[in-house]
Specification:
By secondary structure, the protein is mainly beta. The protein contains one helix and 14 strands. Helices cover about 5% and strands about 50% of the residues.
């Protein structure tokens, strides 16, 4: 069969830097995954965007939740939240806002690697076992790394440096050329500098993923 491989060229990587404009909620569907109807146009939102939810009366389980948009129905102004099962939530009564995290693209990315997590192994061997026995534990999503050509005027690179200094958890978004996105939260552990004769100055950034990686 023909190859379905995609090129890494054209991929983009962004870091969350601020909050966008809040959009009022007009309805919530208690489905799996949860669907939210917005008052205003969804034209400013994209699949893979991170949104913060607040001030809901009724479906209070969503208050304080930060979620990723898995699907958008533009005509109906409805967004679907990845991984949010609302089947057992309380019926929506009124109010609530959805506020997107503004993502700033990091310039001059040369390469990326990571999403190299694994499941923990839990030893459940007992005296009746005939060999070692294990079950799967929690997922550790691992880390993510990028190499960039240094640009001390780029807002994305400046945000990476600030995140390393502050130790603040940040949202990150990788968009592949086929429009598939991987969104995750993480800590910037390292953002080192290197250079040499006949070499462009580079920086390498290592991130530690905290929580799940959401593909959309």
């Amino acid at each position: 069969m023909s190859s379905t491989a995609i090129s890494g060229k054209g991929s983009t990587f962004s870091i969350g830097t601020s909050s966008g404009s809040a959009n009022n909620i007009t309805a919530i569907s208690l489905t799996n995954p949860c669907r939210i109807t917005l008052q205003s146009s969804v034209s400013g939102l994209s699949v893979g965007d991170v949104v913060a939810i607040a001030s809901i009366t009724g479906t209070t389980q969503l208050n304080g939740v930060t979620a990723v948009i898995e699907y958008i129905e533009p005509a109906n102004k409805i967004i679907t939240l990845a991984g949010i099962n609302a089947l057992a939530y309380t019926e929506w009564t009124s109010g609530g806002t959805v506020t997107p995290v503004v993502m700033t693209e990091i310039a001059n990315v040369l390469s990326f690697s990571g999403l190299d997590g694994s499941n923990a192994e839990l030893d459940v061997t007992n005296l009746s076992s005939t060999a070692k026995e294990f079950i799967s534990g929690m997922v550790d999503e691992g880390g993510f790394s990028i190499d960039v050509h240094f640009d001390n005027a780029n807002a994305g690179q400046l945000a990476l440096a600030a995140a390393r200094s502050s130790g603040t958890l940040k949202n990150f978004k990788l968009v592949l050329p086929n429009s598939k996105t991987a969104t995750f939260s993480g800590l910037v552990k390292k953002f080192n500098l290197s250079g040499g004769v006949d070499q462009a100055v580079k920086r390498s950034c290592d991130m530690r993923i905290s929580g799940p990686v959401v593909w959309s």
